[in-house]
């Protein structure tokens, strides 16, 4: 037989696809019912997932936005050297660690003028990489200091203003007051640090401690006192930050192994993880139930459809369409209806999500929560939907495979 | 054009249900139209299915269609389904009792489907001619659901001959029609088969119609284990 009588494979595929579409369109009421079964599952699942994702990511954002949630505070004081600090910095998950002097020496007075001063303000050692100052352009260096917003407010100063930092000591029966001109190089929000405080570089804090311990300090303008160059640097405690919420537990454990009592927001972090886990489980169970139901309903609808159209399939076979062509016909119909269902489902999700987000925006309880999915989530949902479609297509194809062309000749 | 010998098809099982259809010999030339007649249940449709390569015969001596030397008996023997489907779509045309039109295609697309399946142009002179003679031209854009039974059967006939098969197999094409419409369709089939140089086998139990057109007949006689088909002497 001449080869020209055989259509190309692509031509035949296009013909099958066209027939599949024409059949779907001819039977559009039934087609819509099948697609609707899919929409009825996809849209609510996407909405539920969008909310879950919105709630959990808001909780996580709250955790991560506030570096204090990553802080591991040491409750007990000790005497630690630089080596110990290096060991702490080497612990897995530690992003920042800096030594602190004894708590009595972490205070000083800040004065602007007679009306504006703060006595006994908290001094916090800081350096490049300090998570609390992560959104600052400059870190404390030399006589440059960063104030917390409550401190700046009470002193009525802003970036660029100059202040006097003062510390008093009693040495050999004499009251002495060391003074240093400092410049405000930054102010951090109260949400970051709610108490009045000044972030200073560690050498300045150590200088203040030595001054209080009776050393002379040219920096503070007091030349009177003992001179001991071999004075070893010892820290009473350290400020330690984890790089992420999940690392906090490990650091706490490592410190407690050294009998160091700590305070952290581990409980809150665990809470968010627990909420995520529980919501994930709830969503998973609902999703599986719905998908199984959807699979059953779609497979049933398709099988009934194939049985109803048995004679048509037999005629297609009689005309010379072979089994793979009939399989492609069924698979194309399942695929098209699935895509239709998915697109409508996605559209309904967008609508429902907009309604949710409007309601959430006016609620104080749920401030910041938005129903939202990422493109990756949409792709995963599409993959799951196509997975369901594949199963339905397999069931349908198995059913359609048994149809013999001779059935078209026999009476119904 | 068509040469066949020693065809046996077994239908049913067991001693009571078993029925063997036996056709010792059949020869058809171009333009021939042969009526297959016999009592109900004698296996007329079974014979048609076997000739249409839809049933696996229990024995078959020789089956050749057209000038090609391809022995269809061998293909049936090894159940080469794809080769049989190719031959079926190219060499055979089926006209079913109920039309067998696809409800989702209009008349034009139903008629062109066998041609498109073979990669032929959607229409041809012969198709136009047949549509004109059968009065289908005003109906081309209608779906089968909107047609009368007679219109459906005429459409089904054009679809069966659209790809210019060698052999037309018709299973009681006029059974659902009133006598007058049946007579018209029968006459049209006969004249087009002769005009287009096809061969046709038509199952019918309408003796008056067969007699009226003076068709040669393949008659079934019931035997002990089944039935035997032989051309009218």
UniProtKB/TrEMBL annotation, chain A:
Coarse class of the protein's main subcellular location: membrane
GO biological process per UniProt: lipoprotein localization to outer membrane
Membrane topology reported for the UniProt record: Multi-pass membrane protein
Similarity comment: Belongs to the ABC-4 integral membrane protein family. LolC/E subfamily.
Protein name in the entry: ABC transporter permease
Any Gene Ontology CC annotation: plasma membrane protein complex
Keyword line: Cell membrane, Membrane, Transmembrane, Transmembrane helix
UniProt-listed PANTHER family: LIPOPROTEIN-RELEASING SYSTEM TRANSMEMBRANE PROTEIN LOLE (PTHR30489:SF0)
Subcellular location: Cell membrane
ABC3 transporter permease C-terminal domain mapped to chain residues: 285-405
TrEMBL record, chain B:
GO cellular component terms, A-Z: plasma membrane
ABC transporter domain boundaries: 2-233
Listed GO biological process terms: lipoprotein localization to outer membrane; protein localization to outer membrane
Database matches in InterPro entries: AAA+_ATPase, ABC_transporter-like_ATP-bd, ABC_transpr_LolD-like, P-loop_NTPase
Record Gene3D superfamilies: P-loop containing nucleotide triphosphate hydrolases
Protein name according to UniProt: ABC transporter ATP-binding protein
Keywords annotated in UniProt: ATP-binding, Nucleotide-binding
UniProt keyword tRNA-binding, yes or no: no
Matching PANTHER family: IMPORT ATP-BINDING PROTEIN (PTHR24220), LIPOPROTEIN-RELEASING SYSTEM ATP-BINDING PROTEIN LOLD (PTHR24220:SF689)
MF terms (GO), sorted A to Z: ATP binding; ATP hydrolysis activity; transmembrane transporter activity
Species name: Halomonas salipaludis
Family indicated by similarity: Belongs to the ABC transporter superfamily.
């Amino acid at each position: 037989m001449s080869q020209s009588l055989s259509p190309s494979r692509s031509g035949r595929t296009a013909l099958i696809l066209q027939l599949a579409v024409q059949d779907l369109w001819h039977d559009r009421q039934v087609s819509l019912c099948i697609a609707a079964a899919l929409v009825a599952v996809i849209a609510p699942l996407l909405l539920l997932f969008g909310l879950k994702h919105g709630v959990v990511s808001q909780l996580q954002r709250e955790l991560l936005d506030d570096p204090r949630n990553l802080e591991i505070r040491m409750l007990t004081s000790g005497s630690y050297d630089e080596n110990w600090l290096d060991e702490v910095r080497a612990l897995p998950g530690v992003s920042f660690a800096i030594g602190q002097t004894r708590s009595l020496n972490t205070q000083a007075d800040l004065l602007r003028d007679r009306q504006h001063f703060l006595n006994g303000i908290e001094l916090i050692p800081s350096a490049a990489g300090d998570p609390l100052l992560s959104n600052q352009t400059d870190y404390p260096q030399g006589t440059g200091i960063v104030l917390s917003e409550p401190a700046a407010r009470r002193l009525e100063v802003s970036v660029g203003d100059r202040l006097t930092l003062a510390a008093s000591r009693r040495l050999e029966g004499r009251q002495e007051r060391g003074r240093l001109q400092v410049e405000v190089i930054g102010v951090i929000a109260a949400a970051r640090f709610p108490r009045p405080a000044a972030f200073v570089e560690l050498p300045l804090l150590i200088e203040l401690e030595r001054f209080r311990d009776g050393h002379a300090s040219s920096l503070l303008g007091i030349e009177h006192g003992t001179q001991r160059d071999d004075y070893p640097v010892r820290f009473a405690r350290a400020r330690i930050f984890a790089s992420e919420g999940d690392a906090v537990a490990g650091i706490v454990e490592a410190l407690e192994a050294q009998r160091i009592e700590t305070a952290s927001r581990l409980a809150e972090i665990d809470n968010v993880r627990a909420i995520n886990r529980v919501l994930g489980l709830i969503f998973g169970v609902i999703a599986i139930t719905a998908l199984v139901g959807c699979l059953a309903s779609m497979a049933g609808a398709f099988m009934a459809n194939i049985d109803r159209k048995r004679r048509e399939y037999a005629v297609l076979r009689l005309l010379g369409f072979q089994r793979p062509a009939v399989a492609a016909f069924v698979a194309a119909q399942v695929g098209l209806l699935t895509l239709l269902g998915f697109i409508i489902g996605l559209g309904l999700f967008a609508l429902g999500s907009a309604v949710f987000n409007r309601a959430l925006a006016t609620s104080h309880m749920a401030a910041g929560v938005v129903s939202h999915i990422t493109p990756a989530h949409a792709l995963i949902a599409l993959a799951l939907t196509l997975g369901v479609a594949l199963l339905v297509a397999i069931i349908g194809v198995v059913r359609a495979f048994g149809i013999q062309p001779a059935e078209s000749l026999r009476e119904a | 054009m068509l040469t066949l010998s020693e065809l046996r098809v077994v239908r049913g099982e067991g001693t009571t249900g078993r029925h063997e259809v036996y056709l010792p010999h059949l020869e058809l030339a171009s333009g021939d139209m042969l009526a297959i007649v016999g009592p109900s249940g004698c296996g007329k449709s079974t014979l048609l299915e076997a000739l249409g390569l839809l049933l696996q015969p229990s024995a078959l001596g020789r089956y050749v269609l057209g000038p090609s030397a391809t022995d269809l008996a061998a293909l049936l023997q090894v159940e080469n389904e794809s080769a049989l489907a190719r031959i079926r779509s190219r060499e055979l045309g089926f006209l079913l009792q109920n039309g067998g039109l696809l409800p989702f295609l209009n008349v034009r697309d139903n008629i062109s489907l066998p041609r498109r399946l073979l990669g032929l142009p959607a229409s041809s002179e012969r198709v136009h001619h047949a549509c004109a003679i059968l009065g289908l031209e005003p109906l081309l854009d209608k779906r089968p659901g909107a047609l009368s039974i007679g219109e459906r059967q005429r459409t089904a006939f054009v679809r069966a001959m659209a790809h210019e098969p060698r052999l037309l197999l018709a299973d009681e094409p006029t059974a659902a029609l009133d006598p007058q419409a049946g007579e018209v369709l029968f006459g049209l089939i006969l004249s087009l088969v002769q005009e287009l140089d096809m061969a046709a086998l038509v199952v019918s139990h309408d003796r008056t119609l067969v007699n009226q057109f003076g068709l040669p007949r393949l008659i079934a006689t019931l035997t002990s284990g089944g039935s035997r088909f032989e051309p009218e002497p």
